[in-house]
UniProtKB/TrEMBL annotation:
SUPFAM superfamilies: 2Fe-2S ferredoxin-like (SSF54292), alpha-helical ferredoxin (SSF46548). It comes from Compostimonas suwonensis. It catalyses: a menaquinone + succinate = a menaquinol + fumarate. This is Fumarate reductase iron-sulfur subunit. Its EC number is 1.3.5.1. Pathway: Carbohydrate metabolism; tricarboxylic acid cycle. Keywords: 2Fe-2S, 3Fe-4S, 4Fe-4S, Iron, Iron-sulfur, Metal-binding, Oxidoreductase, Tricarboxylic acid cycle. PANTHER family: SUCCINATE DEHYDROGENASE [UBIQUINONE] IRON-SULFUR SUBUNIT, MITOCHONDRIAL (PTHR11921:SF29), SUCCINATE DEHYDROGENASE IRON-SULFUR PROTEIN (PTHR11921). Residues 20-114 form the 2Fe-2S ferredoxin-type domain.
Length: 254
């Protein structure tokens, strides 16, 4: 007995996903020719499921090779393509065209509060300097047994689970109004990474980190605007983590 193999009917033309044209207005800055940033618009053909990163690639590859931006993994892991999209900090690789209002131009610019180098690229050195200053690494006075892990309970691990998700994209820090006006403020990302070790039961350096953050440019500069929480592409409760560090300082211990 033979079995007939039927071809699936081709989708109707009206059912096919249609491309369309959007306008990206990008804040450009080329230091060799510009004294101030300027806005430049580009029309790009995209699909609804394309990302802003895809649109930027099309511009760079097909229209203007001088357009400069950072990107690496393109999957929301490396955090290198953080930028302001329609006035909000987002990752270009996670922002879908269909989630934006395509009836209006889409504005794209570099994140704020860090020195602008070119187009959408900023100098990340001040950001990483604050990160390093909070000592974001495990410090233990107890020597681990050779070949064995440092044991920790599920409950103890859960205590700081949220802040382990940080990918150092700077979206939270560069969304903070205090950081925009005060270049000395540690910023949310540094505090989040301090939190990750302050509340780690295996770490013995919490008091040192709390002392570092108990400073006029530390946690007390936070004004609880929640911009950082809203901007985090990993969904970290950044403002809550900052509040927990404040409470630990007042208690004198985690």
């Amino acid at each position: 007995m033979s079995t007939a193999i039927l071809d699936s009917p081709a989708p109707a033309e009206s059912d096919a996903v249609q491309s369309f044209t959007i306008t990206l207005i990008i804040r450009r800055f080329i230091p060799e020719i510009d004294t101030e940033p300027r806005w430049e618009d580009f029309d790009v053909e995209v699909y609804p499921t394309d990302r802003i990163l895809d649109a930027l690639h099309k511009i760079k590859w097909e229209q203007d090779g001088s357009l400069t931006f950072r990107r690496s993994c393109a999957h929301g892991i490396c955090g290198s393509d953080a930028m302001r999209i329609n006035g909000r900090n987002r990752l270009a690789c996670k922002t879908l065209i269909k989630d934006l209002d395509i009836e209006k131009p889409i504005y794209v610019e570099a994140i704020k509060g860090l020195p602008l180098e070119k187009d959408l690229v900023v100098d990340m050195d001040p950001f990483f300097a604050s990160f390093r200053e909070v000592q974001p690494f495990l410090v233990s006075k107890t020597k681990a047994e050779p070949g064995k892990e440092r044991i920790q309970s599920v409950a103890d691990r859960a205590r700081f689970d949220d802040t382990t998700k940080c990918i150092l994209c700077a979206a939270c820090t560069s969304s903070c109004p205090v950081f925009w006006t005060d270049g000395q403020y540690f910023g949310p990302a540094a505090i989040v990474n301090a939190h990750r070790f302050i509340f780690d039961s295996r770490d013995d350096n919490a008091a040192v980190r709390l002392d570092i953050l108990n400073d006029k440019e530390g946690v007390w500069r936070c004004r609880t605007t929640f911009n950082c929480t809203d901007a985090c592409p990993r969904g970290i409760q950044v403002t809550q983590a900052i509040a927990e560090v404040k409470q630990a300082i007042m208690r004198g211990k985690p």
